[in-house]
Amino acid sequence: MKCLIVYSTLTGNTKKVAEAVSGAIEGSEIVSVDQNPEPSGYDLILSGFWVDKGQADAKTKNYLTRLKGRTVGFFYTLGAYPDSSHADDVARVTEELLKAEGNVVLGSFRCQGKVDPELLEKMKKMLPPDHPHAQMTEERRARLEEAAKHPNEEDLTKARAFAEAMYRKALAGAV
Ligand SMILES: Cc1cc2nc3c(=O)[nH]c(=O)nc-3n(C[C@H](O)[C@H](O)[C@H](O)COP(=O)(O)O)c2cc1C
Questions:
Q1: Which residues sit opposite 32 in a β-bridge?
Q2: Cβ proximity of 45 and 67 under 8 Å
Q3: What band does 175 get if pLDDT is binned at 50, 70 and 90?
Q4: What are the CB-based long-range contacts (under 8 Å, 24+) for 103-106?
């Protein structure tokens, strides 16, 4: 079975997870979304992206429009907690996008990823002072502190388990 992993990353978190996913599927190919790989000829395509303003990053969203009638899964890293409604919304919207094009979505995985401190500083300067991302509340500080520890070994172990599950499901669907 031919498996393609296409990842998008700005600061390396998603690449790390993509490498764990790839390592768990023997013979899989791992390619950056910047290379815009041809999706035909693969039995399973796993898309990895970072979350930008509550959605898959723009490069990934653009790439996903190329997937039609394929067997897919996806994984993502984000600053928010993985069990938050924000994280759930990302999965829901991405799944809807893929299903609208006749793709079969086998599942998804998410984990936190450290948020670039330079970006946080820039945000603070650019946003109006009453914007939630211009302020540092206790809740936000705790969330960012937690995000700064991810992806960690436990996340990578879960990412490998996700990859194996996707592989098994794709194999079961193919016979
Ligand atoms: C411009 C920008 C926008 C972001 N928007 C969100 C967001 O809406 N929700 C969220 O949970 N995290 C957000 N993040 C955090 C990233 O998704 C997170 O740090 C991710 O792990 C980065 O992955 P990467 O290292 O692969 O680029 C944002 C980060 C950046 C740089």
A1: 7
A2: yes
A3: low
A4: 103/67, 103/68, 103/69, 103/70, 103/71, 103/72, 104/70, 104/71, 104/72, 104/173, 105/72, 105/73, 105/74, 106/44, 106/71, 106/72, 106/73, 106/165, 106/166, 106/169, 106/170, 106/173
Residues with C-beta less than 6 Å from any ligand 1 atom: 9-14, 50-54, 77-80, 86, 113-116, 119
From 5, 10, 150, the mutation candidate for ligand 1 (largest count of ligand atoms within 8 A of CB) is: 10
**CATH 3.55.40.20 for the 3-113+151-174 domain, yes or no:** no
pLDDT of 47-98, one tens digit each? 999 999 999 999 999 999 999 999 999 999 999 999 999 999 999 999 999 9
- Domain edges within the chain: 3-113+151-174, 115-148
Strands 29-32 and 3-7, how do they pair? Answer: parallel
Q: Give me the mean pLDDT over the 92-120 stretch.
A: 96
